[in-house]
Amino acid sequence: MAAQPLTVIAVLKAKPGKEELLKQEIIDCIAPTRAEAGCINYDLHQSLDDRTSFTLYENWRSKEDLDQHLQTPYLQALLGKAEELLAADPDIQLLERIG
């Protein structure tokens, strides 16, 4: 059975005053993430209504590719700054396309 593509929607909420720092930290991860073999797309969005809210819309070739991404040094470095930058734990949804 072939690996199933996977969609990830991750919402990150910056601490007040940390919006620009969080945005830059995520932007720094975009190019290397998009270069990963299993990455289909990796897009960052910022809410127009709440500038502390960032959403990553990601598509991966497989869950295994996502798991490899989660171990990359640049993502681990970002996750290591979560306590400093984030107001709450990220809200992460893993989705499979059904239609």
Topology:
Layout: E1 6-13, H1 19-34, E2 39-46, E3 53-60, H2 63-70, H3 73-80, H4 82-85, E4 91-95
Antiparallel strand pairs: 1-3, 1-4, 2-3
Describe the structure.
The protein is α+β, with helices and mostly antiparallel strands. The chain has a single domain (6-95), classed as Alpha-Beta Plaits. Helix content is 36%, strand content 29%. It contains 4 helices and 4 strands; from the N terminus they run βαββαααβ. The protein has helices at 19-34, 63-70, 73-80, 82-85; strands at residues 6-13, 39-46, 53-60, 91-95. Strands 2-3-1-4 form a 4-stranded antiparallel beta sheet. Strand 2 (39-46) and strand 3 form a beta hairpin. The protein is globular. The chain starts with 5 loop residues before the first strand and ends with a strand. The model has no long low-confidence stretch (mean pLDDT 96).
